[in-house]
Amino acid sequence: MKNIKQDSESTFHRRDLMKTSTILFGGLLLGGLGKSVYAKTNPSEIFKPLKENPLILNSNENSLGMSKKAHNAIIQRLPKAFRYLRYSSHSPRMELMDKIASMFKLTQDNITLGNGSSETIQAAIQALITEQKNTNVPVQLLIPELTFEFAELYAKPFNITITKIPFDSKMGIDIPKMKENAEAFKGFSIVYICNPNNPTGLITPAKYIDKWIKEAPKDRVFFIFDEAYGEYVDDKRFQSAIKWIPLKQENILVTKTFSKMYALAGLRIGYGVGSPKTIKKIRAFVELDNINALAAVAANASLEDKEFAKRSIQANATSRKILSDTLDELKIKYLPSQANFMFYQIKGNLKTFQKRMEDKHIIVGREFSPLSQWNRISLGVPAEMNAFTNELRNFRKKGWI
Amino acid sequence: MKNIKQDSESTFHRRDLMKTSTILFGGLLLGGLGKSVYAKTNPSEIFKPLKENPLILNSNENSLGMSKKAHNAIIQRLPKAFRYLRYSSHSPRMELMDKIASMFKLTQDNITLGNGSSETIQAAIQALITEQKNTNVPVQLLIPELTFEFAELYAKPFNITITKIPFDSKMGIDIPKMKENAEAFKGFSIVYICNPNNPTGLITPAKYIDKWIKEAPKDRVFFIFDEAYGEYVDDKRFQSAIKWIPLKQENILVTKTFSKMYALAGLRIGYGVGSPKTIKKIRAFVELDNINALAAVAANASLEDKEFAKRSIQANATSRKILSDTLDELKIKYLPSQANFMFYQIKGNLKTFQKRMEDKHIIVGREFSPLSQWNRISLGVPAEMNAFTNELRNFRKKGWI
């Protein structure tokens, strides 16, 4: 057994050195990207967490790293990075708008770019609240009891009502209960639905969502669908709400990001899709000159790299399988994730569990109150999942889980 | 005479090939940065505008390009760009907060980072308006008649009063008139002062500003000082309003950027300086996970590169001299710029002038209504200013200016 330093990011641990030639051959097959990416995605590799190089599984990042094409596009843009991104027709900003729009058979008027989907969610919340406040209509933000918290954080300074609806019996988002609440509210409801939801990883089936959209009064309910993890879903009951946009549905915004499948979290690039009227409203609250030039060229290059997207989804599916197999083996309860993280039940105190994992140089997810007996773990790449599941088995031997 | 392709950005034209050895020697003296930077800053070089490589002087960018140290820091960070920037103590985000704070002998509580100073201006405008609206106090944005327009654009969707005060007789910001207006306004005034002002390039002397700050009621007037171009000022009557922050002045925010002197416009990184109370209020409106990782490491490296800062200021001063000498020679009226652009009076129609310059592959500044007989030109590097001033002389020969 020997530790092999693969790159500046991570240290992998070979389970079997006899496999070296196969690994190299496999690496060549993967488009010449070399051992580094292959080692990360090879299900028989094991990452070795070290104090100076811990296994970070707490932020739903994609540790596969960005596409080589995105990497090269950034390097190529650097000499021009002293310039603002233009709004003129040939700029990377407009190229990106066009690419995204044509992906969904829409036009630039349907797209607003943002610093991650986070900025788009913020601008939407602010635009909707301000529009209603300007005419003295009461506004509420209507969200599931447990979800990605940015919508709530962005709404807070406006002193509006924030209503949280408990999960259904399977920890899914309770759409009928949310609908009931919106119908009873005397004012305007901004509904935020993260699909798949964070931290549960569960999808909300299209049939429930579609029914609500059809029946909701457009002047009293606005839907924000956060589909940051949509690319990872293989459950056929899920459908992206973007399908509603060509139908000229005015009260819907769908937000997407390059942070997950495309591994560009540190670059901050995402977007919103909606009707031209909605997008115009939101753009008034988006920062001028918002996205950075390197993110724009990286996103453009990523959209051209279909191979990378495939490999990214595949690596995540492999990691998901490694983890769910282990949890089954250890008889640990977990939710059937459709994202790049998994929510599973631990025994005893989460803080103790986190501390014990940290002692092994593994950083697991934070607490999602009130579910303090659950832990969210980012799936990482297969080599990382192998390290994590090995540690879970050790914990079981010690009676800690 | 021979055109020499210096780098992917620009083509320079040697005035005298006999100077080659001197140029190379000079290049070596400039810290090994090579001909490219030297050619840009050498006052005897002339940039050659081409259709495929025009001379872009319309956005107050710093065409010197970023510091080599910033460039290297970006390359080094790329393998980790799949990660979000952390808020923990050793992250580049916190390192940058610390560096900026210590530059002004302040603490992290005094600093809010933003995607360019633009995001900080936006968050401040939104935070201040929302705070007053939550208690039904009327709010106005009080600005000079001609200034950087983002503050106004960010305020517009809130339906507040926007009051514009005419310039004084020398096209300076009329502080006494603004003060009078704020005193008469029954409500809360957000005062936005860009210093030096854009597009005039003129400073507002500290003595006028200080008097107003001392006399203004803190609960009715809030000052935003945009000092994006502050580093270029050598007029002693200017003082950064940051001097007020250690004095615990609650009603002041100063915004700064890495887009100008540090040439990082495409990366989107800036900040605001204020009291802890002010900064806390503004942070609630700043996007979560806002700045990107590459901008953070580039900004950190830039702050360490004192040589670059010096060279950057020097190049701008040289360009300013080249332009003002030419304008003097041609007896063209201009304002004494303290920034990286200059506002000068043209004869006849601006659109015609812009078009004629464009025919020579030179992109000059847009119209700043109602001053349609003035043009704002970004100073660029000396080699670029030589090309522009040569064209001005040609225009004079043709009787166009």
Brief sketch in words of this structure:
Two copies of one chain form a homodimer. The first copy, chain A, is an alpha/beta fold. Chain A contains 13 helices and 14 strands.
How would the blueprint of this fold be written?
2 copies of one chain form a homodimer.
Chain A: E1 3-5, E2 11-14, H1 20-29, H2 35-41, E3 45-47, E4 55-56, H3 68-77, H4 92-103, E5 111-114, H5 116-133, E6 139-144, H6 150-155, E7 161-165, H7 175-184, E8 188-194, H8 206-215, E9 221-226, E10 252-257, E11 270-274, H9 276-283, H10 293-304, H11 306-329, E12 341-345, H12 350-359, E13 362-363, E14 374-378, H13 382-397
Parallel strand pairs in A: 4-13, 6-7, 6-8, 8-9, 9-10
Antiparallel strand pairs in A: 1-2, 2-3, 5-11, 10-11, 12-14
What can you tell me about this protein's structure?
2 copies of one chain form a homodimer. By secondary structure, chain A is an alpha/beta fold. Helices cover 38% and strands 16% of the residues of chain A. Chain A is built from 13 helices and 14 strands. In chain A, the strands form 4 sheets. In chain A, strands 5-11-10-9-8-6-7 form a 7-stranded mixed β-sheet, sandwiched between helices. In chain A, strand 1 (3-5) and strand 2 (11-14) form a beta hairpin. In chain A, helix 1 crosses helix 2 (35-41), helix 4 (92-103) packs parallel to helix 10 (293-304) and helix 11 runs parallel beside helix 13. The first copy, chain A, is globular and about 60 Å long. At the A-B interface, helix 3, helix 5, helix 6 and helix 10 of A face helix 3, helix 5, helix 6 and helix 10 of B.
